[in-house]
Amino acid sequence: MEAVSAAPQPISTRATAVRATVQRPGVDAVREKGWWRASKWLLARRLTQFGILAVFLIGPWFGVWIVKGNLSSSLTLEILPLTDVFLLAQMLAAGQWPYREALLGGGIVLAFYLLVGGRTFCSWVCPVNLVTDAAAWLRRRLGLKGGKKPSAHTRYWLLAFVLVAAAVTGTLAWEWVNPVSMLHRGLIFGFGLAWGIVLAVFLYDLFIASRGWCGHLCPMGACYSLLGRVALARVSADKRRLCDDCMDCFAVCPEPQVIRPALKAAGQDHPLILDPNCTTCGRCVDVCSKDVFRITTRFDRSES
Amino acid sequence: MSDQADQRAGEPQALPRRRFLKDAAGVAGGAGLLALGVGLHARQAGALPATALRPPGALPEADFLAACVRCGLCVRDCPYDTLKLAQLGDGVPVGTPCFNARSIPCEMCEDIPCVPACPTGALDRALTDIEEARMGLAVLIDQETCLNYLGLRCDVCYRVCPVIDKAITLEMIHNPRSDRHAMFLPTVHSDHCTGCGKCEQACVLPGESAIKVLPTHLAKGSTAEHYLKGWVEREAHGRSLIGDQVELPVRGMEGQAYGDTRLRPDAPPPAGDTRPYAPGGLDSGWKP
Question: Among residues A148, B33, B107, B128, which is most buried (max CB within 10 A)?
Answer without folding.
Answer: B107
